[in-house]
Amino acid sequence: MAGVESISHSGICVHDLKAAEDFYCKILGATVHSRVNFKTQDALRGRSVHTSLMLDDYLFAVMLTEDWMDVPPPETLRGENRVRHAFCVPKGRFGGILDQLRAGGVPFEGPVSHPQHGPFGESVYFRDPTGNFLEVLWRRDEDAIYNEVQPLGHGGGG
Amino acid sequence: MALNGAFSHLVVECSDLERSEAFYRDVIGLDVLGRNLVADNRPNSLLAMNTRQRLLLVEVDDVPSYPASGGSIHHAWLLTIEQFKQARDRLEATGYESGIDPRQSFRAVGEYNMDIHDPDGNRFQIQAFGEEGTEALRSGTGTVVMGHIDDFPVGSVTPYRKGRFFLVREDAGFLAISSWCTHKNGITIWQKESWHFYCPFHGAKFDRTGCYHGRMGCAPMRLNPVQVDGAGRVVVDTDRFFAREAYGPEQAVPARPGAQFDPAGLTELPARDEKETRESARMEG
What we know:
The complex is a heterodimer. Chain A is of the alpha/beta class. Chain A has helices spanning 17-27, 40-44, 91-103; strands at 6-13, 31-36, 49-55, 58-64, 83-88, 109-113, 120-127, 133-139. By secondary structure, chain B is mostly beta strands. Chain B folds into two domains: 9-63 and 74-129, 2,3-Dihydroxybiphenyl 1,2-Dioxygenase, domain 1 (Roll); 136-271, Rieske [2Fe-2S] iron-sulphur domain (Rieske Iron-sulfur Protein, 3-layer Sandwich). Chain B has helices spanning 17-28, 81-93, 274-284, and strands at residues 6-14, 31-35, 44-48, 54-59, 74-79, 111-117, 123-129, 136-138, 143-148, 157-160, 165-170, 173-178, 189-191, 196-198, 205-206, 223-224, 226-228, 233-237, 241-243, 267-269, 271-273. The chains are: A alpha/beta, B mainly beta. At the A-B interface, strand 1, strand 2, strand 3, strand 5 and helix 3 of A face strand 1, strand 2, strand 4, strand 5 and helix 2 of B.
């Protein structure tokens, strides 16, 4: 057994909070969990303005800060720029996800098939409007029994 | 549309696969599943958590630098309390400083956190949540005499920080609303300009009667019993807590001498001492 259950959330930085919210919510189906530090007094106190989004069982604290990094050129669809977040869907839904990315005008790379001896099946790669890298895949171990991912303990305040 | 799936894995670039694999195995506590299990022409290693989630390390020539102001970009491991203690021991055994939490004052009761950077500077939180994070906590202030009923006009919300409650005057009478957030025992504040209680720890919002509005699924804020004594003074018992499913005007204690709190339909909760809980958490965490 590992000494860790899961990753509960990530803080990512974006250039445009509205564009990020639209992308994650309207294209990927995330929901707004909470909006943090949107009040004038928060800004005056230097608190980071961010929206917490739930994408499936994962929380992104999407922050509008100056901490964002240099972004690879837009034609680079598969990459990390330090990290990439990957979401799995049932194999039967994978084709539908590709259709939905196309319908949303999201360019992607793939599908790429993974080795038979590994747990992953096929992946597609794309990025959010800022350039944060994302992946959707189906997994060969989708019927395996693992510990359940527990609801996150917080709303993304850090 | 929605993905209708789940988080699968985090891909992390590293400059030295051997070194990072050892870090995530020996310090963080992941299980190494194997090398080159994915379609990637760079050296890579897949590591497992106990859920379906995975970490994929890929070795690259240059890991991009964070800006000097960087710090917002982070990821959070979720551990059980027992795993958290083991992680703290591993950190100490491997020479990392444990117990480092730059936002300690921001944590709710029962929320344990350590911050750690991987060998390439990626910031991770190591988090766990104890059961005391959802339990009622006594402030130790006992019974509090707040003042005369005429001192509190209808619509007023009067915080009593030491006693961890808000005295709310409704048309129907008085509510003493415990200021502990029912999400994870953060301490809420009254945001008068927005007419709601707000928990700065995790962002939960509750209306003036203590009912939650949002997607976090929080129960209504708990009530402390109120009575109005024969002289018309409002008295709050901070040692007792009652849970409720929703607000009803019968929960308010009428603003007249002799009026008593009616617990019908409410559930009294066991409570533990806040100070002892915090001290115990400091020793454990």
